[in-house]
């Protein structure tokens, strides 16, 4: 897949023009709610398409700037690839600007552009002062090299320049991982009349396709993606970096909430205790105390919990990372490397943020031994590095593993002797758990195909592999397919793949009528009516007729004479046997009519069918048995 997908965010203080600038860039008003219009502030996340060509697609999210709506701001920014920091020329850097900067740092957003808005309201001298103010504020942050663009959203000054800067920056940037397992933290749940439950969010990683079976974590609900939309357009797939709305079957709106996560793999961990590396904000208003209540924002989740230190009891100010643990009141979905924000519930303030070292935290003793243990986890053992690389890429050669893990060949080969790892075709390594997950994906897809197409011998192998090649290397797919056959879970028949014990059959709710139809056809012997009349008599709908007819032919339960007249398979075999037993090596149409008593309209198609099946060879007016 050559096309790349990105989501950018607008961040900054309330009333500094984020929504107006978004509208100037996209021609979309992202203030959707009535109360947003009345109060002139953004409460919910607003999304709009910014740019698309053959190479790249960019969406923009306008995140709320008001302090009371910081929760939505964190949920929106958590999935973005680039931020436009909006600062009004008539006010400069404000408290919310600083807080947004801290949050962006903790969430690991590395690319940024500064947009100084409302430039038509002030003179050039004040603009220079504001630029210096922003420049000073950005020192020692990831945005200290960020370009500045002067814009006025109403007159459109600088808007095209800003848009060009965004596009150029993202074209030079790597997109998120589309080969990994699909993950979409849900930030909105709603219903559409006649469609049912819809969830919306930014695809963090992987990709999704229409019809795919997914899981809602941490609830463990199994659903199917009935329909996918990106910017109100129905699509077959959505990829990492895109904003997507997904119509789900198998779940109600009341069963879901913001913070739930839609995933395609069982590898994602549900947990309430996480080991983390945290940094605190530069200007704490209050001391952070041992086991104090915190509100943790991770993905789109907002969960209460407590912070547990192992080498201190308080933090007043700290520039370095602090290794500690979060013990949460509710389960979340996370993995190593995920970013989070911590806020004090009351009095409200952002405390800090960081990244997840270990999603499956345990209870540790207070002391430096625990800190040493967490330091080792932070760096990652050789085995953990290999697992992380394989979870992301699914299978890798030894050379690729050396590059990704920075381990020596000797260290790698020592670790790879573990039964957790599997060598594929003496070329690439994968994990047993990845193979089991892929095998489960195979069986789910094949099972679904059987329910939808019960009369077919299985799913076409090329079709099955095509749908999964975006997530898994083809060598791994082929290997696991053979692995499933060896374990008697799957079977291969030519180009078709099926579950091991699957037998093609007419759909169960039409089996009885089909049996009745066949019985009547058999009873009529040689003197049959049009086959369509038999289907009609038994109430088999037109949309099923061709499929059932083709299936019955494949199973040799019916034999076509001329495409309209069909005999029951046993009747056809009876005619062949009788004619062969009562003729010599050669016979003509007259002899055949005497033996079978058929009219010409059925006799000729029957004899031509014998030729077609290569049971006979016609030479002038005679036929010879082969």
TrEMBL record:
Residues 3-174 form the Tr-type G domain. Coiled coil: none annotated. It holds the Pfam family GTP_EFTU. Its main location: cytoplasm. Keywords: Cytoplasm, Elongation factor, GTP-binding, Nucleotide-binding, Protein biosynthesis. It is found in: Cytoplasm. The keyword Aminoacyl-tRNA synthetase does not apply. It comes from the Bacteria. The keyword Hydrolase does not apply. InterPro entries: Beta-barrel_SelB, EF-Tu_GTPase, EFTu-like_2, Elong_fac_SelB-wing-hlx_typ-2, P-loop_NTPase, SelB_WHD4, Small_GTP-bd, T_Tr_GTP-bd_dom. Translation factor necessary for the incorporation of selenocysteine into proteins. It probably replaces EF-Tu for the insertion of selenocysteine directed by the UGA codon. SelB binds GTP and GDP. This is Selenocysteine-specific elongation factor. It comes from Niallia oryzisoli. The lineage of its organism: Bacteria, Bacillati, Bacillota, Bacilli, Bacillales.
